Amino acid sequence: MSSSYKGCVFPEGLLYDLEYHVWVKFEGEVAVVGATAPGQAYAGEIIFIKIKDKGTTLERGAIAATVESAKYMGPMRTPLSGTITEVNEEVKNQPSLVNQAPYDNWVFKISPTKLDSERGLLLDTRSASEKYRSIIDEWGIQCG
Amino acid sequence: MEAKKRFLFVVSTGVNEPKKAFTPFYYAAAAASMGYDTHMFFLAEGPSLLKGDAPDRVRTTEEGEPLRKVIELALRNNVKMMCCSTSAKVIWKMGDGDLPKGVDYAGAVTLIEMASDPNTVVFYF
């Protein structure tokens, strides 16, 4: 069952990185990554997103994409070290899809190389939704 | 190994031109969020943007956001800010405690050294 707070939903079955405000879903050996609901709400309506190319190798915390809205400019960092295997062309062409449905519109897929040491840094839905409450209050945002 | 590319935004306009005030902060935030080592250097009129209540007072339009929004955006994205000590202290009578947190005083030599680096791209506002 998903959790929510101030309209920000946290679906079950995903893992969350509260340092970088991204969600992760594993599809076999590949991790699918997108923006969390509070992350996209904080940014506002995204008007441009630049995603690193397929084949780019990144360490955890490196910039995988740059997000631009009318009032925000910031990086989307990878929660896992690895190599980007795919970028979402639909999101590149229409970045506001991330605002409309952040969990349906992934941004990039990455083949992790340090999963054993980095998986523990990701939170499950229950932990993430609890910890996100104070962040949402601090940011003064409302999703949806 | 290839040296990391750096962006240097030199800001010489100030509160006298509010319509120009936001742009260098926003573009510096963009460069930093793309992973570039990014610096801003304020000289001549530039330090006036950082002085006293200017970050809260300066707006591009009456209904617009205060300048502080983009200053904080740039600092949050790890833009390094430096303010010409001569401009600030002589022209604007600013003291050691008059700069926002995260901004340091620097001199002409620092700016010239950074600008002379072949890996640095300089924008002048």
From TrEMBL, chain A:
Q: What's an example GO BP annotation here?
A: protein lipoylation
Cross-referenced InterPro entries? Biotin_lipoyl, GCV_H, GCV_H/Fam206, Single_hybrid_motif
Q: Where is the Lipoyl-binding domain?
A: 30-111
Q: Sorted alphabetically, which Pfam families does this protein's record hold?
A: GCV_H
The record ties this protein, via CDD domains, to: GCS_H
What GO terms fall under cellular component here? cytoplasm; glycine cleavage complex
What protein am I looking at?
A: Lipoyl-binding domain-containing protein
Which species is this UniProt entry from?
Answer: Candidatus Marsarchaeota G2 archaeon OSP_D
